[in-house]
């Protein structure tokens, strides 16, 4: 893959482990294909029951190192205090302009999950729009940038997006590396086996696809194809 063909992918999460659990295997696959991966984390998980902010930050840095991804922390109000505000949308829009991704990944907006996940889902969607508007004084430090695609990932199985059909990505060869990525967040495994929760869900998605493991992404917008000749197969396989 040439430098001009490599995608720049920015994954946004509310907490230090969200991205790795929600779309880590997809990012590992994309990195193996030569894509540039950036992580944008909007709190240090300071309101959580397990792990100090310092520990959570270090765990996140270890995971980003395994991914060979850039890592940026933003202060969007603090863990459990993140709001879907214009101010937070502008913070993320600045990072979109600075990093200039082709693809942005954000948590789903499913209501019955951590409120920070819902807030970051909504502000990332708004940020992707604001980033392309040339007349915003707050964003003048960087030139406008329009992302090609915005997709949503589910941080837990219960956060699957309500309505709409997801893309299913075959991540079968990357499960071991994904487990290592999730294991970086050891402080979060004390009360629940989140690793097995995610891997077992990926097995279910894989069964739908006819492979061993999959992960899902929900598109924000209708997806454009050149013709039916370029349309991917459906998971049902009829």
Automatic annotation (TrEMBL):
Stored InterPro entries: GlcNAc_PI_deacetylase-related, LmbE-like_dom_sf
Pfam families, sorted: PIG-L
GO function term, MF aspect, one: hydrolase activity, acting on carbon-nitrogen (but not peptide) bonds, in linear amides
Gene3D superfamilies in UniProt: LmbE-like
Name of protein: PIG-L family deacetylase
Source species of the chain: Pelagicoccus albus
């Amino acid at each position: 893959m040439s430098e001009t063909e490599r995608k720049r992918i920015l994954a946004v999460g509310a907490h230090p482990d969200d991205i790795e659990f929600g779309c880590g295997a997809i990012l590992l696959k994309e990195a193996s294909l030569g894509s540039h991966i950036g992580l944008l984390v909007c709190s240090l998980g300071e309101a959580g029951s397990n792990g100090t902010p310092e520990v959570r930050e270090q765990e996140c840095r270890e995971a980003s190192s395994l991914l060979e991804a850039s890592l940026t922390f933003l202060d969007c109000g603090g863990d459990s205090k993140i709001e879907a505000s214009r101010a937070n949308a502008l913070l993320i829009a600045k990072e979109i302009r600075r990093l200039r991704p082709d693809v942005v990944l954000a948590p789903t907006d499913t209501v019955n999950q951590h409120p920070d996940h819902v807030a970051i889902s909504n502000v990332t969607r708004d940020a992707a729009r604001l980033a392309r508007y040339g007349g915003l004084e707050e964003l003048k430090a960087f030139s406008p940038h329009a992302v090609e695609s915005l997709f949503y990932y589910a941080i837990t199985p219960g956060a699957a997006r309500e309505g709409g059909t997801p893309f299913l990505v075959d991540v079968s060869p990357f499960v071991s590396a994904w487990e290592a990525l999730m294991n970086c967040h050891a402080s979060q495994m004390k009360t629940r086996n989140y690793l097995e929760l995610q891997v077992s869900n990926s097995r279910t998605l894989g069964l739908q696809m006819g492979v061993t493991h999959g992960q899902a992404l929900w598109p924000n917008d209708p997806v454009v194809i050149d013709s039916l000749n370029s349309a991917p197969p459906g998971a049902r396989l009829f």
